[in-house]
Amino acid sequence: MTDSEITLPAPPTPSPQPEYGIFRGPNGIRAGWRALIFIVLAFAIGCLIISPLFLLHLAHTGSSAQNQHFGLSPVDVAIGETLIFVSTAVAALIMASIERRKWSQYGLPWRFAFRKDFWIGTLVGFASISVTLLAIFAFHGFRITGLATHGSALLSAAAAWSVAFIIVGLAEEFAFRGYLQYTLTTGMGFWPAALLLSISFAAAHGHNPGESWGGLLSIIVFALVFCFVLQRRGNLWWAVGFHAGWDWGQTFFYGVPDSGAPAYHNFLSSTFSGPRWLSGGTVGPEASIFTPIVLIIVALGVARVYRENLYRVENPNVPASALGTVLQTATTGSQPPSTGA
Fold this sequence. Notes:
- The protein is mostly helical.
- The protein has one domain (25-332).
- It is 61% helix and 4% strand.
- The chain has twelve helices and four strands, in the order ββααααβαααααβααα.
- The strands form two sheets. Strands 1-2 form a two-stranded antiparallel ribbon.
- α1 (31-61) packs antiparallel against α3 (74-99).
């Protein structure tokens, strides 16, 4: 065989470049769309499954009228926040199955539940609201006038508020800094996602009675501090504890308004006086100038004690066809096989 008779193999045909667009990116469905799917799922679960139970409870107990006269009730707070937590947790479970992740990656690994980080966060949260009120007191803006609850009612109220505010911490931290923080971080980075969700967190409190711009700005600072703790600790349990400890101290122990909502079955009776920048006005101490100052001090302490960033995210590979699987999962309850993280 001569050289002229040798047949050379044809060069390989180059693989077509994937087409990216608004809906699909290098990792499949873009992070923003996955976040939107999660929100829709959580809303649907809340409306179709859990909300009717909550409405039946209100109709049976008449607690909406009770709240109008007495302020927050631990039972109603617990039920409302359970609605939020179950809706977002189930929606995240569905998304975890689609994205081939473990649910624990979204910030609440159960192996760390109610362990050291939670209790440290709880103590720091209670200490923070105490220091805030002490600073207001030093400028003659806050005064304890006596006891509001006595005897066995005090013990039952303390227990009820403890359970209620643990649920508040779980629900609000996971709803705004669980799946959504994780997913949006894969698309825009940690701090842009944190800022967006922190503003959304404040907006969700905007309908509270008596809320003010000062209070909403403090809520943004709260959220950013919680995000910072999440970045340093790698999960939400410290923030859940702080959230519960602050709210328990604010509403039950000191008996002061919480984001404009008056306390109910609280331990101490308190009064405020002076300008709004000092006392917080109708909002309560969260709108005081001392709240963001105390929160900044907390963040500096966290930065000093926890020096390593433990938060980790991994980009998924979610094909566009997964949208149909999500809808099938939501409507039929069947889930595709999961391969883990």
